[in-house]
Design brief:
291 residues, alpha+beta, two-stranded antiparallel ribbon, 13 strands
C-alpha cells in the first residue's frame, strides 16, 4: 500500500525531503476494540442505549472511524527550513502533516499556470488553433522558443506551458480565451480562484510574471486538488519531457521538464515549478511514498 504526499513550498531556500522521512512515520495498523476505546473521548461516539431485557449497554460507533495517521514522532526535532511558507499534505488521510505559515500571501511565479491551464481547458477545445502573435512572443525577453505567427493546437500549447513552463504559451492561451469570450483573462482567473476557495490569492497575469500577484500554500493545495479533475493537467505535470509540432506540421519542438526533482526523487508523481526575482523558487510536488 502506498500513500500519496503533496508538498507545496513558496519561496524555497532549502528543502530536505529526508528530514520529513525522519520526522514522520506512517503506520497503518488496524484498531482493535481495546485500541478504539483508548482514543480521546471526543473522537468516538458516546451515544448509547439500553437493550431491553438484557441489562447490557450498546454503543453506536461512527460509520467510519477517524484516521490518526501519520503520527508525528516527537522524539525527532523539526527540520530547520528556510522556506517562507510551505505545507505537506497526506492526500490518503486528508491531513496537513507539517506546515509553516500556510496562509501567508506571497508571489508564486509559474505555479499560476495551473490556474491558467484550468481556465483554458474550460473554454477551449483540444484542436483549437492558437497563433503566437506579437502579444505572446518572447514576453519575458529571455529568448523565444516559438516562431512569430507559428500556430499550435491548444493541447500542444498546454503541454508546453506545463512541462517547459513556457510564458509565451501561457499568454497565447490567455489571448485565445479573451478573443473567444470577450472577457479579460485576469478576471477569469480571480473568479475561478474564488470558486475553488482560494481566498488568499489575487492573479494579474496568466504566466505569473507579475510579482504583485500572490497566493498561499493553503490556496495552492486547493488549486492542485481542483486540477486533479483534469487528466490533461495530471499527464503534463507528470511528464519528464514533451515533443510537439506546429499545427501545419512544419516545425517540431522538444522540451524537458523544468522539474529537476525527477532525477532525485524516485517516487515522484509530478509537479510544477516556478521562479521569478520576487518569488524566488516555488514548487508543487506529489510523491507516492512507501509506508
Amino acid at each position: 500500500m502506498r500513500s500519496k504526499i503533496i508538498i507545496l513550498t513558496v519561496l524555497v531556500g532549502a528543502l530536505s525531503v529526508l528530514s520529513f522521512y525522519l520526522v514522520f512515520t506512517v503506520p497503518v495498523p488496524t484498531l482493535s476494540d481495546a485500541d478504539l476505546w483508548s482514543v480521546p473521548r471526543d473522537s468516538r461516539s458516546t451515544r448509547n442505549s439500553s437493550i431491553s431485557g438484557t441489562g447490557t449497554t450498546a454503543f453506536l460507533l461512527p460509520v467510519s472511524e477517524p484516521t490518526y495517521f501519520p503520527i508525528r514522532d516527537t522524539a525527532v526535532p523539526s527540520p530547520e527550513l528556510t522556506a517562507k511558507s510551505f505545507l505537506i499534505y497526506d492526500s490518503k488521510n486528508g491531513k496537513i502533516i507539517f506546515s509553516k505559515d500556510p496562509a501567508r500571501a506571497l508571489p508564486v511565479a509559474s505555479l499560476t499556470k495551473l490556474l491558467t491551464a484550468i481556465i483554458g481547458l474550460e473554454n477551449l477545445n483540444d484542436k483549437e488553433v492558437i497563433a503566437i502573435t506579437e502579444e505572446s512572443f518572447n514576453i519575458d525577453g529571455e529568448g523565444a522558443i516559438f516562431r512569430l505567427q507559428e500556430q499550435f493546437y491548444f493541447q500542444d500549447l498546454l503541454g508546453a506551458m506545463l512541462v517547459k513552463s513556457s510564458n509565451d504559451a501561457a499568454v497565447a492561451i490567455a489571448k485565445a480565451v479573451e478573443k473567444k469570450t470577450g472577457q479579460k483573462f485576469a478576471d477569469f482567473m480571480n473568479r475561478k480562484a474564488l470558486q475553488i476557495g482560494m481566498d488568499r490569492s489575487n492573479f494579474l497575469d496568466p504566466a505569473g510574471l507579475n510579482d504583485e500577484s500572490y497566493s498561499s500554500s493553503g490556496d495552492l493545495l486547493r488549486l492542485i486538488q481542483y486540477a486533479k479533475r483534469y487528466p490533461e493537467i495530471q499527464n503534463f505535470i507528470g511528464s519528464r519531457s514533451l515533443a510537439i509540432t506546429s499545427a501545419d506540421g512544419k516545425f517540431a519542438h522538444n522540451f524537458t521538464s523544468t522539474n529537476r526533482l525527477w532525477n532525485d526523487l524516485p517516487d515522484l508523481i509530478g509537479g510544477k515549478t516556478g521562479s521569478t526575482d520576487g518569488a524566488l523558487g516555488c514548487m508543487i510536488a506529489e510523491e507516492n511514498l512507501p509506508e
